[in-house]
Design brief:
The complex is a heterodimer. Chain A is mainly beta. Helix content of chain A is about 0%, strand content about 55%. Chain A contains no helices and ten strands. In chain A, the strands form two sheets. In chain A, strands 2, 4, 5, 6, 8, 9 and 10 form a seven-stranded mixed beta sheet that branches. Chain A is globular. Chain B is an all-beta fold. Chain B has no helices and eleven strands. Classes of the chains: A mainly beta, B mainly beta. Chains A and B meet through strand 5 and strand 9 of A and strand 9 and strand 10 of B.
Chain lengths: ~110, ~120
């Protein structure tokens, strides 16, 4: 199975700064099946990005996804306080599998 | 607006069977374009996919849980259900139901989640 490794484990930034979150796959995978979620404390995950780069409905344009092959990135262009959350990437090959998550803290 | 709601016991004894139901409202479970899925998240940990079912009853399971899991669907009630047999403390988690898009395998709608604790 393709394993996803997310880095860093924790990212601490100030409002207005740019956040860059990495998701690395153990083997090349189709961009069509790379997804990003946001999980705020005490809430269910929320779909942010599908197909590696397409924002889901209602997602602000400060969130963007990119990448291909084994390296994928979620970028938050200007952090806002409400972006405090854990962000997960997910792949689908034979069975959906999630990365371990990156926690974004706001200074 | 589509909504999903999990229901079921919050406490299960070790070696017994965990049973949860997800009720879908604001849309039909009998859609060609979606699977209906269960996922879980141990306290303080990451997300794990359990399995999915199509409205026809065809189910797919995470290989690591397949021997203990059954998912079934009741289209007349717009519900789908999870049974997990022979539970241990390691099965203590928040259990989520979700809709899974056939096209890209994203989970686009989620229930609020329900905590199930395995303890005697």
């Amino acid at each position: 199975e393709i394993v996803l490794t997310q880095s860093p484990g924790t990212l601490s930034l100030s409002p207005g700064e740019r956040a860059t979150l990495s998701c690395r796959a153990s083997e090349s995978l189709s961009s069509s099946y790379l997804v990003w979620y946001q999980q705020k404390p005490g809430q269910a995950p929320r779909l942010l990005i599908y197909g590696a780069s397409t924002r889901a409905a209602g997602i602000p344009n400060r969130f963007s996804g990119s990448g291909s092959g084994t390296d994928f990135t979620l970028t938050i262009s200007r952090l806002e306080p409400e972006d405090l959350a854990v962000y997960y990437c997910q792949q689908y090959t034979s069975s959906p599998l999630f990365g371990g998550g990156t926690k974004v803290e706001i200074k | 607006q589509l909504q999903l709601q999990e229901s079921g016991p919050g406490l299960v004894k070790p070696s017994e069977t965990l049973s949860l139901t997800c009720t879908v409202s604001g849309g039909s479970i009998s859609s060609d374009s979606y699977y209906w899925a269960w996922l879980r998240q141990p306290p303080g940990k990451g997300l794990e996919y359990i399995g999915s079912i199509y409205y026809t009853g065809t189910a797919y399971y995470n290989p690591s849980l397949k021997s203990r899991v059954t998912i079934y669907v009741d289209t007349s009630r717009d519900q789908f259900s999870l049974t997990l047999r022979s539970v241990t403390a390691a099965d203590t988690s928040v259990y989520y139901c979700a809709r899974r898009d056939l096209r890209d395998s994203s989970f686009d709608y989620w229930g609020q989640g329900t905590l199930v604790t395995v303890s005697s």
